[in-house]
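hiii, so i know i said id send this last week but things got crazy w the move. better late than never?? heres the sequnce for the chain we talked about at the cafe, plus the structure i predicted for it. fair warning i was half asleep when i ran it
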Amino acid sequence: MGPEPIATLVRSSDTQALSDSLASMGTRDIEAELVRLDDDAMGVVFRLLDRDLAAQVFEILEPTYQQRLLRGLRADRVVHLIEELDPDDRVRLLDEVPAKVANRLLASLSPGELALTSTLLGYPEDSAGRLMSPEFISLREAMTVGEALAKIRRDGLDAETIYALPVLDDERHLIGVTGLRALVIADRESLVGDLMNTDVRYVSTQTDQEVAARLVSNEGLIALPVVDAEQRLVGVLTVDDAMAVLEEEESEDMALQGGRSPAREPYLAMSVFGLARTRALWLLVLIVAAALTVNVLQIFEDSLARVVALALFIPLLIDTGGNCGSQASTSMVRALAVDEVRPEDLRRVVWREARVGFMLGLMLGTAVFVPVALIWEPNLALVVALTLVTICVWATMAGAALPFFARKVNIDPAVVSAPLITTLVDATGLLIYFGYAHLILSV
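okay and structure toks below
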């Protein structure tokens, strides 16, 4: 059922019909409906859910919506929801709420859950330690398969995952990993040590969360072990949490490439002022940068007065250059993010993009030359064609190189992508254009 019927049922105060509709929906469907409602309507819908289903829905909501719900619920309901969250999800919420609210929520936790949560909060923000789950099942290499399966049945309900199982020595050092599938199909008297894979991928608690999440994605892991400074296992990073991190990082890169600050809240949860604020700063920066283009035009004002037709092709040239630069830059930002290219590949990448730019410029210049020559004159057509070739080569080289330089000075490569590349190419493209005009048309 779509969002409109749910909203209509809430407004009509038809509690029975609303309950029946919710009963026929899955947790993801309910979550999708809640985020489209205002705070009061969201509270009405949520209170109609039974406690277990409410806890499941609450767990998959973004922290912004979790906060909104908590404000309208009774204290006992809030305690239940916070207690039922997995420790890593609870930390994610606590990172978003004000300090006073976070302290109050922590005080409501049971001793066991408080200890787990406090441990995660002790790790740096954006680290694998803060993102991992401390609830996992570990095995010993000397265990038999029968003993391992009995432990999984006993403790599996509270574990984040039972499909990837770390194997530890007597000092809790990570020595291998096995899977539920291997245990189920093996003889019950076989030893876990004979079934484990000793070539284990793992990260430390201090590892950046994006690096850890990228490792999960690249290696196709269900769960990634997280160890402390003494190589003792302290948690696991599951694939769902890793994918959430990558989605957040990609959203941030897309925002920066689009010339706006990353939003910390979902789109529908943000106010109009909040949305405007994420875009205003970059627009002001780009206005200042665009002043370079105005200054270049002013320098060549006499040239434009002598050959008015030159002005007709300025939008075509600078837009083409900006587009070429943006394409190259966006490709490099992604390639760097997924480790397809590395800093040492800079020369190879720039040379490759220079050839791509030359081919693009040659195709576009040829396509433009004939109509411009027929309508105006061949010399003007030659100026436009040569400018297109040069701009495309320059734009693709600059677009490919700048993300590398940004990473070298510890700036997010996405920051220097599309908007800044476009502005840079606009100004330099005009210099190239009027340079060819001076040489060929003598203006």
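btw The CA atoms of residues 168 and 174 lie 5 Å apart. thought thatd interest u
miss u guys!!
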